């Protein structure tokens, strides 16, 4: 962190608090028109003072978020900013970037230092650990103590633990499902028509007979959208906190990779990976998979042209997805749910180092995680315009809204902070919150849960390896190239990029972390 900027903001904050205390001492009552930020902020807890919008100068925040823009976003943001103006005397400009634009533009924005107050980060895009390593994010612990008390109480401790890097927090984790559980969504009418035995599915390989039947009898359907999530269902503990980087250890009582439980290995150089990509190539040749490795399946899902798809599942998502698409779906799990450090870091909000107003950015996050009105406004849009309430937990589209093409509704909603203050579609059962709790407690912790890799010592190798992955990973995983020819080239280029140095560094840091854990646990 820039020390001079930190000292500056700290001095400003001390002066503001002093002024507030002085005003509070000389004025026992405030105008009823003033709007209290929170009655439970640490300011009120620690000093007896409440921050109100009249205490704060106007501010505009810039927030880069990962999502597909909605047609009515400007209309919703007008309502959001009216509310924020009353609550914290601020407005926010949310720049919503689709996945391709987000991945292309955000690294340059963070590297350039252009003003940005909030940004989405995760283990799978705009990588959290990589950004912390290069100093792109501000440490947040002092801001959380002053402006994030509600968030700290509502977010489970395991999530905060997973965000720690050298005992500092650099992003606020999303409070949603904890861990990953992969599974298969299938068109229920096709399952019923051909009496497909979906209850027999246990692993990705069990899908093949179903795909064969569908391809034979329903040639107009794509049997499977893309197979990447099938590969992710193979349990392994990713040491670098990145789903793509080489370096893993076994997970679970029956490891999918026959390796020593404590030895880091390159998952791409295993017989198991070779078997997977060879199978995907065979499936692709048989017509079960798309020929384009960058295929986007959403339009085909909406028009009913796909039979099945693999995904990372959240409790009861099958109901909401069925409602979104307008036809019924079946769902089956693939294996045991797991909690890795990368799962804990699967979605979070960071304050970039270039932020000119980190205090106000943290105030916004506190609202987002603790204020149901703001959370549901950003998730579902305007009540009466985009949705209507069915009961205190459930909603449905407002009259005249096409649920297949809504003008505003991030129904998946996991990206908006705290799912436990969010409304669900009316198709969700009443015990959805309880099912989330059961899901989270039922997933098994990975052996290296809480370990955060510092990639700085091998940053050159990681950059080179990522270039190799960008060229070879998706074509191999999606079965669009012959692995007999391409897999050896992929492995050789990984070698040239320094994969052995990466694996060695991962092993070194993991061993040191294990030793520290053992030392801590043995203390009286």
TrEMBL record:
Residues 447-515 form the DUF3502 domain. Signal peptide: none annotated. It comes from the Bacteria. It comes from Paenibacillus nicotianae. InterPro entries: Bact_solute-bd_prot1 (IPR050490), DUF3502 (IPR022627), SBP (IPR006059). This is ABC transporter substrate-binding protein. PROSITE patterns: PROKAR_LIPOPROTEIN. Gene3D superfamilies: Periplasmic binding protein-like II. PANTHER family: ABC TRANSPORTER SOLUTE BINDING PROTEIN-SUGAR TRANSPORT, ARABINOSE-BINDING PROTEIN-RELATED.
């Amino acid at each position: 962190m820039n020390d001079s900027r930190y000292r500056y903001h700290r001095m400003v904050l001390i002066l503001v608090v002093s002024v507030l205390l002085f005003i509070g001492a000389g004025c026992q009552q405030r105008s009823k028109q003033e709007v209290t930020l929170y009655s439970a902020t640490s300011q009120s807890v620690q000093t007896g003072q409440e921050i109100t919008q009249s205490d704060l100068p106007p501010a505009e925040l810039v927030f880069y978020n990962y999502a597909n823009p909605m047609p009515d976003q400007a209309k919703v943001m007008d309502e959001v900013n009216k509310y924020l103006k009353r609550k914290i005397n601020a407005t926010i400009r949310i720049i919503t970037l689709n996945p391709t634009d987000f991945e292309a533009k955000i690294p340059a924005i963070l590297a350039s230092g252009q003003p940005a107050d909030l940004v989405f980060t995760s283990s799978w895009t705009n990588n959290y650990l990589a950004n912390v390593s290069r100093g792109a994010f501000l440490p947040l612990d002092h801001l959380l103590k002053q402006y994030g008390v509600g968030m700290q109480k509502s977010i489970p401790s395991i999530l905060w633990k997973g965000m720690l890097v050298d005992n500092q927090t650099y992003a606020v984790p999303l409070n949603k499902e904890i861990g990953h559980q992969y599974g298969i969504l299938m068109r229920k009418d096709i399952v019923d028509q051909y009496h497909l035995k979906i209850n027999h599915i246990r692993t990705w390989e069990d899908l093949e007979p179903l795909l064969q039947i569908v391809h034979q009898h329903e040639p107009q359907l794509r049997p499977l959208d893309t197979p990447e999530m099938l590969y992710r269902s193979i349990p392994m503990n990713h040491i670098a906190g990145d789903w793509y980087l080489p370096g893993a250890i076994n997970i679970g009582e029956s490891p999918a990779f026959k390796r020593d439980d404590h030895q880091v290995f390159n998952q791409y150089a295993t017989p198991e990976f070779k078997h997977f990509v060879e199978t995907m190539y065979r499936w692709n040749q048989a017509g079960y998979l798309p020929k384009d490795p960058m295929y986007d399946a959403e339009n085909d899902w909406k028009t009913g042209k796909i039979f099945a798809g693999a995904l990372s599942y959240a409790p009861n998502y099958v109901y909401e997805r069925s409602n979104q698409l307008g036809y019924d779906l079946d769902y089956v799990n693939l294996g045991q749910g797991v909690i890795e450090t990368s799962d804990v870091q699967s979605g979070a909000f960071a304050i970039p180092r270039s932020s000119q107003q980190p205090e106000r950015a943290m105030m916004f996050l506190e609202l987002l995680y603790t204020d149901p009105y703001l959370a549901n406004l950003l998730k579902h849009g305007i009540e009466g315009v985009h949705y209507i309430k069915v009961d205190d937990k459930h909603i449905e589209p407002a009259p005249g809204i096409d649920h297949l093409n809504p003008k505003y509704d991030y129904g998946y909603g996991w990206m908006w902070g705290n799912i436990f203050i969010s409304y669900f579609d009316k198709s969700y059962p009443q015990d959805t919150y309880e099912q989330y709790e059961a899901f989270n407690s039922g997933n098994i912790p990975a052996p290296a849960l809480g370990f955060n890799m510092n990639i700085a010592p091998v940053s050159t190798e990681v950059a080179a390896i990522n270039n190799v992955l960008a060229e070879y990973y998706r074509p191999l995983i999606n079965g669009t190239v012959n692995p007999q020819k391409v897999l050896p080239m992929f492995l050789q280029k990984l070698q040239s990029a320094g994969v052995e140095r990466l694996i060695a560094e991962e092993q070194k840091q993991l061993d040191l972390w294990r030793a520290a854990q053992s030392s801590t646990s043995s203390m009286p």
